[in-house]
Specification:
The chain has 306 residues and is mainly beta. It has one helix and 23 strands.
């Protein structure tokens, strides 16, 4: 099994309904974040991963004005991280099989309130004191054990990564999960658009409507702005296209195919059948290996079809 899941902060990209997406750059580096209150729900995997790497951002309000909030990010039966308010601070707990194996309550120098915090972790199963639990918060290593008795393969939730925040007092965003190594420095960047090329109908509000098969919407990236902020030699490891919202109004045209155009070559990637729900989101992601500078001249977008 090899998977990589990336989500800037859309509740609509979870494997569960009922979450709430929140916009605002004060809550997220991507400008998008969410909360969803159902436990044992979030990301449903096709197989049980032997190990799980993850990084995510969480905006945490001042705990002195929070009444009822907590965050769970874990796999199986509560193997992972719990964050909850305790008077003037947010406590961080490392959980294994639901049991608290480490608590950090003096988080004033680690957790920022009314601000975005970044967490990174690595969990690996092990039956013979060879399991791994490694957690970093805002660059600080708060827990690292390589001799854990840790086994979640038999749990009923073994294929579920719980992504739960009970209220809007804690908002999740910038999520990356994989069964292969993720750097703590890896993050999601919303690419600024330089130009849009399309034969779809421009609705005048930032949205486009396809009325015929093979109509395309292609956009180029503002590489100069990205290079100035992150450096032209910074690595790009994944590209994800999002249609938000992306839906069909009737039968007939019902699918979007992800495209990349470079020079005269057009490459097709995933085909996605869209829903009739006006709030639905379509996403297509793939691994790449290039620099920000190498995005120059490339176009990314969608083709409508049946």
């Amino acid at each position: 099994m090899a998977f990589k899941y990336i989500n800037p902060g859309y509740a609509e990209l979870l494997s569960v309904r009922g979450g709430t997406t929140v916009t605002g750059e004060q809550y997220s580096k991507t400008g998008i974040s969410f909360w969803q209150a159902q436990m044992n729900r979030g990301l449903l995997l096709s197989e049980i991963p032997t190990e799980l790497y993850g990084r995510f951002d969480v905006f945490l309000k001042n705990p002195t004005i929070v009444e009822d909030a907590f965050v769970w990010v874990c796999i199986g039966y509560y193997n992972g991280i719990k964050i909850s308010p305790d008077r003037t601070v947010w406590d961080i707990e490392i959980r294994k099989d639901g049991r608290n194996i480490y608590s950090l309550s003096d988080t004033a120098g680690v957790i920022r309130t009314d601000a975005v915090n970044t967490l990174w972790f690595h969990i690996k199963q092990g039956k013979h004191a060879d399991g791994i639990m490694h957690v970093m918060v805002n660059g600080y290593e708060i827990y690292h054990a390589q001799n854990e008795e840790l086994w979640y393969a038999g749990d009923s939730e073994a294929k579920t990564v719980t992504l739960c925040s009970k209220s809007g007092d804690a908002l999740l965003s910038n999520l990356i999960f994989s069964d292969e190594a993720i750097s703590p420095q890896e993050q999601i960047i919303m690419l600024p658009v330089k130009e849009t090329h399309t034969n779809m109908t421009d609705c005048g509000d930032g949205s486009y409507e396809a009325t015929a098969v093979n109509q395309e919407l292609l956009q180029t990236v503002e590489v100069a702005a990205l290079s100035a902020q992150y450096g032209a030699d910074s690595r790009v490891t994944e590209i994800s296209l999002l249609g938000n919202p992306a839906y069909r109004t009737a039968e007939g045209l019902c699918a979007l195919t992800a495209l990349e155009k470079s020079g005269g070559n057009v490459t097709e990637y995933g085909r996605h059948v869209v829903e009739q729900n006006p709030t639905s989101v379509v996403a297509d992601a793939r691994s790449v290996s290039m620099t920000i500078a190498e995005l120059t001249g490339r176009q990314f977008g969608w083709r409508a079809g049946t």
